Amino acid sequence: LVKSKNPGGPTLKAGSFLKANGGYLILDAMSVLREPGAWQALMAAVRSGKAEMTTDGLKGLATMEGAKYYAPAKVKVVLLGSPMLKMMLREHDDSFATGFNAAAEFESRLPISAETVAGFVEVVKNIVAKSAGAVMDLTRDALSAVLEYSARLVDSNQKVTAQFGALNGLLPAD
Predict the structure, then answer these.
(1) Three-state DSSP class for residue 13
(2) Shortest CA distance to 21 belongs to which of 73, 76, 71?
(3) Fewest beta carbons less than 10 Å away: which of 1, 70, 124, 130?
C-alpha cells in the first residue's frame, strides 16, 4: 500500500495485498524473494493481518523511513514454488512455518489417457495462443512429438510430465 502526497490531503493506493482483501493473493515465491523488501513486507502483513503503507512506498518499507499507516486486510496468501524452495524457507525463516501452514503439491507426472492427452494439447495450444506469435502453431505430428518428449522426460511410456516449463525449449519460435 502506498501513500502519496497530493494537494488537499494524502491519497491511498492499494497494493496487491489490500486488493485481495477478503480473498486470495497468489504469488510466485521466487518473485517475492527477488524483490527487495517484499518478503519482509509480505510476512509482516501475513502475521498482523494489516497492509502496511509508508509515504515512500516499498522503498519506505525496506528502509524503515517515512510515516507508517495500516489498513486491515483479511487475505489468504498462496505461494507457488518448488518443494526445494519451501524447504529452504522453512529452514531459514522461522515465521514461514507459522504463516504458511498448509501445503499442496501437484503431481509432476500424469498417466497417459484420452483426457490427459486432450488436456496436454489444450495447454500447448494456450501456450501458442498467449505467445503473441513468438511460438509457431504446431501440426498434429509436432504435437505428437512434444507429447513423446514429455513421456521421455519422466522415463515412462505410461506417463507424461506435468511440468510444462520443461517443454518451453521445444516449442519452435517464429
Answers:
(1) strand
(2) 73
(3) 130
Residue 8 CB coordination number (10 Å): 5
Prediction pTM value: 0.54
Q: How far apart are CA 38 and CA 46, in angstroms?
A: 12
Check if the beta carbon of residue 131 is closer than 8 Å to that of residue 107: no
* Contacts for 153 with CB less than 8 Å, ≥ 6 apart: 160, 161, 163, 166
- Are 119 and 162 in contact by the 8 Å Cβ rule? The answer is no
List CB contacts of 122: < 8 A, sequence separation 6 or more: none
Got the DSSP string for 113-159? -HHHHHHHHHHHHHHHHHTTTSB----HHHHHHHHHHHHHHTT-SSE
18-50 residue pLDDT tens = 888 888 888 888 888 888 878 888 888 888 888
Express each pLDDT in 64-123 by its tens digit. 666 777 888 888 888 888 778 888 888 888 888 877 777 776 677 888 899 988 888 888
